[in-house]
Specification:
By secondary structure, the protein is mainly beta. It has a single domain, classed as Lipocalin. The chain contains one helix and 19 strands. The protein starts with a helix and ends with a strand.
C-alpha cells in the first residue's frame, strides 16, 4: 500500500499543471461595467523528455511514455461595476499516452479581478487577481486530466501605459495548492510573466514574453518527497490581431529554456491559439 501511495506522489508531480495559469491572463485593463468577455484558449504539446535528478539533465522519453495534450480553456465573465470582473472558467482536455487516452473537463475555476490602480494620471495600471479552483476532473481519467485539488491563487498584474508603440507587463501569482487525498498534498506554486507588446498598427500587436512556474515538492503524510519539485521557464513569441474592434485573435508559441528547467516531464514546444470577445 505504501508503494502505491508513493507512486501516486510521483504521478501527481508529473501531471500537475505547469503552464502559466489563467490567474494572470490578460493585462491590467478591466472591462467596462456591464460589459461581457468571452475567451477560448487552445493549446497543443507533447512531452518528449523527463528530468534525471541523478545526473541533473533531461533525457528522452520512450515513445510509450510520451503524452500528447490538446487543451481548451473556456472562460466567460462580466463587470458588475467599475474596475471589477467576475469570471468562470471550464478547461477541457484530451490526452493520449501509448494505448491510453482520456477526454473531459478539468478542474473548474471561479475568478475575480479588481483594478486597484487605473487612473490616467499615473503611468501604470495595477490589477489584483484571485481564483478558487475546484476538483471537477474525472477520478478515473488515465492519463489524468487535472490534479483534482482545491486550490487558491492570488496574483498581481502590472501594465505600463504606452511608450510610443511599446507596452510592458509584469505579472506574478502564488498558488496555495490542496490535497488529492488525506495523505498527499500538491506543492504550492509561484508563477510569473514578463511581456513586451509592440503595437505595429491598429490591427497587429506582436509580443515577446518570458514566463514560468516554480512548484514546490509534493508532500506525503506531511513529508516533502525529494525530486517532486518542478521549475519551468519559457520564452514565448506571438501576436494579437484585431480584425474587428470586439474580437482579438492571438497565435503564440512557447519554447522552454531547458538549461534552467527541472523536474517532471517537458515538451520541446507548446503551440497556442486564443480567441476573445469583449461585447459592448
Amino acid at each position: 500500500m505504501k508503494k502505491i501511495l508513493i507512486m501516486t506522489v510521483i504521478i501527481i508531480a508529473a501531471i500537475s499543471n505547469t503552464m502559466a495559469t489563467p490567474l494572470i491572463w490578460r493585462g491590467a485593463s478591466t472591462i467596462k461595467p456591464m460589459q461581457f468577455i468571452g475567451q477560448v484558449n487552445l493549446f497543443y504539446s507533447q512531452t518528449t523528455k523527463s528530468y534525471d535528478w541523478t545526473n541533473n539533465e533531461w533525457t528522452s522519453l520512450a515513445d510509450d511514455k510520451k503524452t500528447t495534450s490538446i487543451n481548451a480553456q473556456i472562460m466567460a465573465g462580466l463587470s458588475p461595476f467599475k474596475n471589477f470582473e467576475f469570471l468562470v472558467l471550464a478547461p477541457i482536455a484530451s490526452k493520449t499516452q501509448d494505448t491510453l487516452s482520456s477526454f473531459g473537463t478539468g478542474d473548474f475555476w471561479i475568478k475575480a479581478r479588481y483594478g486597484l490602480v487605473s487612473s490616467k494620471l499615473v503611468p501604470i495600471k495595477f490589477t489584483l487577481s484571485g481564483a478558487l479552483v475546484l476538483p471537477f476532473a474525472s477520478k478515473d481519467a488515465n492519463p489524468a486530466l487535472d490534479d483534482r485539488t482545491t486550490d487558491i491563487g492570488i496574483g498581481g498584474i502590472l501594465q505600463t501605459k504606452s511608450f510610443g508603440p511599446f507596452v510592458g507587463h509584469l505579472r506574478f501569482g502564488y498558488w496555495f495548492n490542496g490535497k488529492t487525498n488525506d495523505t498527499t498534498k500538491v506543492g504550492d506554486m509561484l508563477e510569473y510573466v514578463a511581456k513586451l507588446d509592440y503595437q505595429l498598427n491598429k490591427i497587429i500587436t506582436p509580443f515577446l514574453s518570458i514566463w514560468g512556474t516554480m512548484q514546490g515538492k509534493t508532500e506525503y503524510n506531511g513529508e516533502a518527497k525529494e525530486n517532486t519539485q518542478k521549475d519551468r521557464h519559457n520564452v514565448q513569441i506571438g501576436l494579437v490581431a484585431k480584425p474587428i474592434s470586439m474580437l482579438s485573435i492571438r497565435p503564440k508559441i512557447s519554447v522552454p529554456l531547458e538549461f534552467v528547467c527541472k523536474g517532471g516531464s517537458n515538451a520541446p514546444f507548446q503551440i497556442g491559439l486564443d480567441f476573445w470577445v469583449i461585447a459592448p
